[in-house]
Amino acid sequence: CRRRHFGSFFRTRARRRRICSIKERCRMARPARRRRTQHVSENAGARARVTEYRDSDAILSVLTREQGLMTFKARGVRSRRSQIKSACQLLAFSEFTVLERQGYYTVSEAVCIEMFQPMRNDIELLSLCSYFAQAAELLSQQDVNDGEVLSLTLNAIYALCKLKRPQPLVKAAFELRMMVIAGFQPMVEDCAVCGSDAPDRFDVAGGMAVCAKCSAPGSLRLPISPACLAAMQHIVSCESKRVFSFNLLPEPLKELSDVSETYFLTQLERGFYTLDFYKSLRLTGQDLQPAAQ
Question: What is this structure's pTM?
Answer without folding.
Answer: 0.80
